Amino acid sequence: MADGKAVPFRIAVPDAVIADLKERLTRTRFPDAVPDTGWEYGANLAYVMELVEYWRTKYDWRANEREINRFAHFKADIDGLGIHFIHEKGKGPNPKPLVLIHGWPGSIYEFMKIIPMLTDPAAHGGDAKDSFTVIAPSLPGYGFSDHARARAMNIQAMADIFHKLITQVLGYNRYAVQGGDWGAAITSRIGEVHAASVYGIHLNMIAVGPAEGRNAPELTAEEKVFLADLEKFRTHETGYQWIQGTKPQTLAYGLNDSPAGLCAWIVEKFRTWSDCHGELEKSFTRDELLTNVMIYWITQSINSSTRLYYEARHHPWRLKPGTRIEAPTAFALFPAELVRPPRHWAERAYNIQRWTVMPKGGHFAAMEEPGLLAADVREFFKGQQ
Fold first, then answer.
1. Which of 120, 130, 146, 181 is catalytic?
2. Is-catalytic flag, 32?
3. DSSP-derived pairing of the beta strands 96-101 and 81-88
4. Catalytic residue selected from 59, 309, 310, 350
5. pTM above 0.90?
6. Is 73 one of the annotated active-site residues of the chain?
7. For 107-116, how does the pLDDT look when each residue is reduced to its tens digit (9 = 90+)?
């Protein structure tokens, strides 16, 4: 693969990998559980056992592999890493380049439903004039992108890699960006340092707080409620962040070796962070859940993906005091998002020009509510020139 040149890529998992997976699933040694505890101790044993059995006996990777491969995939060497991405051309008269950036424990699979809505809006109730050419990269260390072998593959480094992908490899002078989770942080960083190259940024998670922090004298009552909710989240829901941010290598031995363990680790987050009201399969099908897990399994990327937490903790990105992200910013606030900042808080860190309170949906917005997210993205960027 030549440096800086995009070459076609196709997902083709060897049969031996699938056979090994099924053998491991057959030999799963499940843990015990306290009876009648549901999900409060973590991933529910009965559900995980049922999902693993479905995975072993009914799930069809090849069908889902074909679904993913229906889009145009490429890889390009950037700063010594092979970066995988979807590059799907828009069908309108003048499509804007739009970068979709995922996070953890997601993947480019999050965008399977929303990509056609963005590339061909006329076929999905929109206007062809609002179409995009979509570029959806796998983060370095995630999915089909290479694993970094050096330290500090953090938010800043990924933002620079994606900017080079769009402007140097693909040759777009200006582009739009959308992101959630780590994708929101990377998108925000792009909006900070590459504002002149973007039409704007669209977020479904606020990824950075005001540089002055939480003790600024102008905190409102609404902001105080938000900070209390944020502290509750940190107390009850961030165990994964601490282990992934401090000792990801130790965690990786179990998750890279046991498909059932990997599945439980990832699927529990999809339940906790989605707008499913405790019933996971109201928001995602089993095939959707397992295909996302499969991308981590077949690429052995759970270790390299969780290292982003370590790198972000040890090589952090923060706004400088007295500054904010000046790129035009839109925020879609989904009701089951992990944290829900008030607009005043966000406006101290971002140049907010659109603020949409969504009626339903959660952290994995592109999978859960692709129609709502796509419509909001189209509406925002058609006003950005």
1. 181
2. no
3. unpaired
4. 309
5. yes
6. no
7. 999 999 999 9
